[in-house]
């Protein structure tokens, strides 16, 4: 009889013919190429004389067995603990299988991950949590993460350490994105005087329409900061949950939209972002938390911009912070691929 390390605990290796009456400590899997893969015996099964030929037929000439006690956990029990550390509201979990559990989205929403605590758990060893990239919308049924306990058995104390690292808040969040009634202020003398056609409004209608948002207020104004300020304030007073301003966002002397937004009294979080296209993006919040955004001209003609990264957060009521914007630098360069595959690309996946 030999012994093997199972996490921090020993499991005994016995000849299959001598295993009658012993309890299996893990699933016995049979793989038939292009036909099936699945367990022929589950963990906890008590081996009988009739099982011996079957076990030998799947290549199991020896079996690992162990006697459970209060200090160790089987891989599936430990996987349930990892699931509990990850799972937040609006998520569904698979049944544990071979120490693995997957979480899927129970609704459409914005997926978020606490990356620091996730890294801390994965650094413990003998366990792992792998997630899809956070900060992007997901659909109902999309896979969010997979967890696995590496050894067949693991010390209960190690799982307690994982729980201490994570604390009481789940590692993952799935926040529903709520359609908002928004106002759109289109600025620019060239549009106001009819010298060019307004093509910005159509782009905004399409982008926000994908999320079911309603454009409740709309106006086209000259480059007059006082008039722009008044229009923003009026839309907010009339119940706009989000106000977007287009045009006048560069550093030219006659571009007045940033000044107009500041003059509303809103708190400007950032004017500028390390994202191309979209460097001249501005975001501000009113005293009651409603966002006002200044959108650079690239939003009108580029396939994907800073606005595509920010919009899901605006609709999920996740505050856009200067720190989050600063972190977009790595991955903030859109490569303008001939065929756009966003969000299945590196754009917006900052370090």
UniProtKB/TrEMBL annotation:
Its cellular-component GO annotations read:
cytosol
Pathway(s) this gene product operates in, as recorded in its UniProt entry = Cofactor biosynthesis; molybdopterin biosynthesis
Q: Name one Pfam family in it.
A: MoCF_biosynth
Annotated ranges, domain MoaB/Mog: 183-316
EC id: 2.10.1.1
Q: What family is it from?
A: Belongs to the MoeA family.
Tell me, which GO biological process terms does this entry list? Mo-molybdopterin cofactor biosynthetic process
Upper classification of the source organism reads: Bacteria, Bacillati, Bacillota, Clostridia, Eubacteriales
Please identify the protein, giving its name as recorded: Molybdopterin molybdenumtransferase
Q: Which InterPro entries match?
A: MoaB/Mog-like_dom_sf, MoaB/Mog_dom, MoeA-like
Give the UniProt keywords, A-Z: Magnesium, Metal-binding, Molybdenum, Molybdenum cofactor biosynthesis, Transferase
Q: Which reaction does it catalyse?
A: adenylyl-molybdopterin + molybdate = Mo-molybdopterin + AMP + H(+)
Q: Which SMART domains match?
A: MoCF_biosynth
Q: What does this protein do?
A: Catalyzes the insertion of molybdate into adenylated molybdopterin with the concomitant release of AMP.
């Amino acid at each position: 009889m030999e012994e093997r390390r199972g996490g921090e605990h020993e499991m005994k290796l016995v000849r299959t013919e001598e295993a009658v009456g012993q309890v299996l400590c893990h699933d016995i899997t049979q793989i038939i190429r292009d036909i099936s893969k699945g367990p022929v015996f589950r963990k906890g099964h008590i081996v009988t004389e009739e099982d011996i030929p079957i076990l030998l037929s799947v290549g199991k000439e020896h079996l690992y067995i162990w006697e459970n006690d209060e200090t160790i956990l089987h891989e599936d029990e430990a996987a349930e603990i990892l699931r509990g550390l990850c799972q937040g509201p609006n998520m569904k979990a698979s049944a544990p299988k071979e120490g693995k559990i997957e979480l899927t989205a129970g609704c459409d929403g914005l997926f978020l991950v606490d990356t620091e605590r996730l890294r801390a758990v994965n650094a413990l060893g003998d366990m792992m949590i792998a997630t899809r990239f956070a900060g992007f919308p997901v659909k109902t049924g999309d896979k969010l993460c997979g967890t696995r306990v590496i050894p067949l058995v693991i010390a209960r104390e190690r799982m307690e350490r994982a729980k201490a690292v994570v604390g009481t808040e789940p590692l993952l969040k799935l926040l529903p994105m709520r359609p908002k009634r928004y106002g759109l202020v289109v600025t620019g003398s060239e549009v106001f005087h009819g010298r060019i056609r307004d093509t910005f409004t159509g782009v905004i209608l399409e982008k926000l329409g994908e999320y079911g948002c309603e454009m409740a207020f709309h106006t086209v104004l000259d480059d007059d900061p006082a008039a722009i300020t008044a229009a923003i304030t009026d839309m907010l007073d009339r119940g706009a949950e989000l106000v977007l301003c287009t045009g006048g966002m560069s550093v030219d002397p006659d571009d007045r939209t940033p000044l107009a937004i500041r003059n509303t009294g809103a708190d400007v979080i950032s004017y500028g972002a390390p994202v191309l296209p979209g460097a001249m993006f501005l975001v501000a919040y009113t005293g009651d938390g409603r966002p006002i955004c200044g959108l650079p001209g690239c939003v009108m003609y580029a396939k994907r911009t800073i606005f595509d990264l920010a919009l899901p957060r605006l609709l999920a009521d996740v505050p856009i912070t200067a720190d989050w914007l600063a972190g977009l630098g790595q991955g903030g360069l859109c490569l303008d691929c001939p065929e756009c595959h966003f969000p299945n690309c590196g754009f917006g996946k900052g370090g």
